[in-house]
Amino acid sequence: MPSRPELFTKQTTVHRGKTVSTLAFSIEYQAYVEQLKTMPKKVAIVPNEYEGRPDLIANDAYGTPSLWWVINLSNNVFDELLDLKAGTQIVIPQI
After folding, report:
1. Which long-range contacts (CB under 8 A, 24 or more apart) does 3-11 make?
2. Where are the domains of the chain?
3. How does DSSP assign 1-32, residue by residue?
4. Cβ atoms of residues 68 and 83 within 8 Å
5. How far is the first Cα of the chain from the last one, in angstroms, to the nearest whole number?
6. CA pair distance 31, 91, nearest whole angstrom
7. What architecture is the 40-95 domain classified under in CATH?
8. Is-contact 17 67, C-beta < 8 A?
9. pLDDT tens digit string along 6-59?
10. Predicted confidence (pLDDT) per residue in 69-94, tens digit
11. pTM of the model
């Protein structure tokens, strides 16, 4: 099985008529990602019922499941079932 960095070298060039680089690497997105690094964070432990579910974690933390990607990005989650196992320590940015 390839390592994680090898998997990230592949990019989809088009999504819904726009290139992924246009959607994912806009100046606004890059600025937000940089801000995530310096935002205050809480440390949490993934409970059994939230294993593999960043949407449920985001719903509890932010009041909406649509911010699941903030949880994933802040914790370098690649595979939610492997990286968000029950008992795993994670950080939750205070956005």
Report:
1. 4/78, 7/78
2. 10-38, 40-95
3. ---HHHHTT-----BTTB-HHHHHS-HHHHHH
4. no
5. 36
6. 19
7. Roll (3.10)
8. no
9. 544 555 667 677 766 655 566 777 788 888 889 999 999 999 999 999 999 999
10. 999 999 999 999 999 999 999 999 99
11. 0.71
